[in-house]
Amino acid sequence: MDSTCLVPIVKHGGGEEDFQKLPPSTVPEMQRSNLSPVILQLKALGIDNVLRFHFLSPPPAQSMVQALELLYALGGLDKHCRLTEPLGVRMAEFPLNPMFAKMLLESGNFGCSAEILSIAAMMQIQNVFVVPSNQKAVATRAHRKFAVEEGDHLTMLNVFEAFIKFNKSSQWCQQHFLNYKGLIRAVTVREQLKKLLSKFKVPKISSEGDPDPILRCIVAGFFANAAKLHSTGVYRTVRDGHELHIHPTSVLYAEKPPNWVLFSEVIQTNKYYMRDVTAVESGWLLELAPHFYQQGTHLSRTNKRAKLDNL
């Protein structure tokens, strides 16, 4: 779920009265998740009027419109809400969130397709870091060796590259408290994504250890998921002003919080937490998504663009 689909938190206390207020069933996934992948696939199937499509559990109209806006901002849809060629058609072929697809398709232009392939593959794996209940301190120290100040995406890249360097060893994974099966899965996913990039003639290039092209490429895909640190100590999405927090599993959680971040997804527990978080420069948002953001002194949605304050 991305920032466009956030809804207010409903707090429940204890007791029978509060229990009676709970909804009779869980809200269907279609009504609470990011709809952009669904809409992109419907468009690829030739279903133009997605707002009138007969869903089993019809999603809120606002969520549909926001997903269309995102796909338009990514370049996957034109101003008539038709699939663009070739970008939109190519994005629809990826079995991923359209933001990941855009990031991958742009990676050749940034000169870092090798690294972005690894990052995209790792982002599809849950619980890469293993933390046994009786070895928490040891596991945390082992995981810290892979962490970088830029955030989770480059940390996952470090884990993947180290896994390959040590010949995909299960023993090495055990020593470093890493999910061996998950990493093997990431290798498979990467190969599948690599074939798609070859099909679309995206050049195979490495940034050769330079993190800036990688970070800028992440911005090119995930610019809509930007948040700024406020004086209150919480983050707010740049476009909507929704309150977010860095997830405790993020490598940025215990560090000095960066002023600007991008995130891959938001999950809800007692708060709304950003997962897979990376620190970015605010100027990159203006440079790489000028159609989505504009410089200003107040947060605004004027002309469908958010203003960045205090640049």
Automatic annotation (TrEMBL):
Keywords: ATP-binding, Nucleotide-binding. It comes from the Eukaryota. It holds the Pfam family OB_NTP_bind. InterPro entries: DEAD-box_helicase_OB_fold, HA2_WH, Helicase-assoc_dom, P-loop_NTPase. Residues 66-157 form the Helicase-associated domain. PANTHER family: ATP-DEPENDENT RNA HELICASE (PTHR18934), ATP-DEPENDENT RNA HELICASE DHX35-RELATED (PTHR18934:SF136). This is Helicase-associated domain-containing protein. The lineage of its organism: Eukaryota, Metazoa, Chordata, Craniata, Vertebrata.
